Amino acid sequence: MNGIYGNGIQMTEKVLDLLWGRQNVTLNNIANVDTPGFKSQYITFEEELERKVKNASAGKKPGLHTAAAVSSVRPALKTTWTEGTRLDGNNVDMDQEQVDLARTAYEYQAMVASVSSDLACLRSAAKAF
């Protein structure tokens, strides 16, 4: 699909995978809200994705290098150690987790809509032939 539609669909697929992982981590935090000593976790990937795409697009074969850069992005799972904790040592903030869950769901929906739109355009173009 890369040759036909560039790197857009591959990038969208990778971002969807990463958002799915972020949602799972948030749900794990929510599930452990009452676990003594549990420290909340979060996933970051945007900075690495941006850096790798910028570096790849500066190369001699941007399309080829960008595809490899996108596929090599790995999420970073981080633990929140410095936030204020409750007496039981747990630092999960349910309000923040609910906001993160909703934001991730909206981002996921936007990415699905984007790839659906891209594929609809491709289908429309193919029907013209």
Structural class: mainly alpha
Beta-strand residue percentage: 5-15%
**Basic shape:** elongated
Total beta strands: 2
Major sheet details: 2 strands, antiparallel
Proportion of residues in helical segments: 55-70%
What are the segments in which pLDDT stays under 50 over at least 5 consecutive residues? none
**Number of DSSP helices?**
5
User: Strand-and-helix sequence, N→C?
Assistant: HHEHHEH
Q: Major sheet: order of its strands? A: 1-2
Mean pLDDT figure: 85
N-to-C terminal Cα separation, in Å? Answer: 18 Å
Count structural domains. Answer: 1
* Rg computed from alpha carbons, rounded to a whole number of angstroms: 19 Å
Domain Flagellar basal body rod protein N-terminal: 22-39
Keywords: Bacterial flagellum, Cell projection, Cilium, Flagellum
Protein name: Flagellar basal body rod protein FlgB
Function: Structural component of flagellum, the bacterial motility apparatus. Part of the rod structure of flagellar basal body.
Could you describe the 3D structure shown?
With 129 residues, this protein is mainly α. It has one domain (2-127). Helices cover 65% and strands 6% of the residues. It is built from 5 helices and 2 strands, in the order ααβααβα. Strands 1-2 form a two-stranded antiparallel ribbon. Helix 2 (8-31) runs antiparallel to helix 5 (94-127) and helix 3 (46-57) runs antiparallel to helix 4. The protein is elongated and about 65 Å long.
